[in-house]
Amino acid sequence: MNKRLVMPVLFFLFAVLPAPAWADVTVPAMFSDHAVLQRGVSVPVWGSASAGESVTVNFAEKNYPTVADGNGDWMVLLDEMEANDTGRSMTITGNNSITINDILVGEVWLGSGQSNMQRPLSDDCDAAAAIEEAANYPEMRFFNVTASGGNVANTSWEVSDANSAAAMSAVHYYFGRQLMTLQPDVPVGLISSAVSGTAIERWATCAGSGSLYTGQVAPLQPYAIKGATWYQGEWDSRSTNAAQKYYWQLPCLVNEWRSDWGQGAFPFYVVQMPKMGLKSIHIVRDAELQ
């Protein structure tokens, strides 16, 4: 090659090569407007960006800087906070900037199970009165994975009102309302993820297939929660063999959820199945009692 052409050719190559592509900073769906963050614990905030990209989370007048790892994953831990019912904004800045508005700090609870937990408030015997009163609890927020067909990524936080409460789990709604009554200055965030007609084995990999756990619970982790509520067992009461498994399946589910969340032994409340006309309901009831 003619030496006089070397520099022009090199210049041309550099001119046409694309600049390094920087991916936009993203966060999971749980970090959306109207979210509730868990009080009294270090709160994980995480997402994705370009590998090596600097990311800063700002909340409650504090900055939390970090750098995305080689896979583009990043996480910060917010300092422990007291309950706060005044909506504040969170800003996440990297190559781009994300602002999440109206965030409260209080208690976050996950409700899961089968139809017992899935049944919406609109089907409750006192539905009309309960739905009407939902507007009295604007500091109660819903992250209703159930109503989104189990798709966590398509779910967002909603403020309690007549529209949002109607699709909410009736059992979980009344649980949240009771918390608001007992602790009126503590906002409540209710995450619901339940599917009608499902066996316990679908909700924990240690108990069986774990397909619903991996699809509808694991994507929530490690979003900070206060605890979980569980209302399930009807499906497992159809045979003595299935019911007997509940003695070890329920403890393994609780242990797996706690271990994977990385938050220690958080409270796990179980609603004992009522006496029903199923063949082996008494075995599941006793397993839940144990």
What would you note in describing this structure?
- It is built from 8 helices and 12 strands.
- The protein has 290 residues and is of the alpha/beta class.
- Strands 1, 3, 4, 6, 7, 8, 9, 10, 11 and 12 form a 10-stranded mixed beta sheet that branches. It has a two-stranded antiparallel sheet with strand order 2-5.
- Helix 7 runs parallel beside helix 8.
- The longest helix is centred in the last third of the chain and has 22 residues, at 240-261.
- The radius of gyration is 23 Å and the shape is globular.
- Residues 3-17 have low confidence and may be disordered.
Assembly state of the chains shown = single chain
Please write the string of helix (H) and strand (E) elements.
HEEEEEEEHHEEHHEHEHEH
Strand content: 25-35%
Number of strands: 12
Helix content: 25-40%
- Main β-sheet: number of strands, strand sense, barrel status? 10 strands, mixed
Total helical elements: 8
Termini separation comes to 84 Å
If you average the pLDDT, what whole number results? 93
What is the CA-atom radius of gyration, in angstroms?
23 Å
